[in-house]
Amino acid sequence: MTDAWPTEIKLHKDRRALTIAFEDGSSFTLPAEYLRVESPSAEVQGHSPADRQLVAGKREVRVDEAIPVGNYAVRLMFDDGHSTGIYTWDILHTLGREQEERWTRYLQELASRNLSRDAAGSVRRH
């Protein structure tokens, strides 16, 4: 646990990224696709590492809304209907710090399973 505390949270106008700055001086721009595939929800993370789901086809996903949860987190509502992930400040800080490694691992996992970041024949919800 980092005890990260945000000083600014900004959902970009195009809803494709969230920028968050922290008291420690760090600042991260986290793409909506990255936030969606790394969602801390049980739906994605499962109840154990073996249950973790690989989420494909989210290249075009957007964040419809960022809703504060108390003073410790934000719930992100995605335009694909996913809304169960509660992103604590620590989780967002970790996602920012580990973005390069996590994204590389994600792309490798997609490739190893012959999956794509693009949604095959799906219709985006508005």
UniProtKB/TrEMBL annotation:
Keyword match Iron: yes
Pfam families the UniProt entry points to: GBBH-like_N
InterPro entries: GBBH-like_N, GBBH-like_N_sf
Keyword match Transcription: no
Sequence ranges assigned to domain Gamma-butyrobetaine hydroxylase-like N-terminal in this UniProt record: 9-93
Keywords: Iron, Metal-binding
PANTHER family registered for this protein in UniProt: OS02G0197800 PROTEIN
Protein name: DUF971 domain-containing protein
Organism of provenance: Ancylobacter koreensis
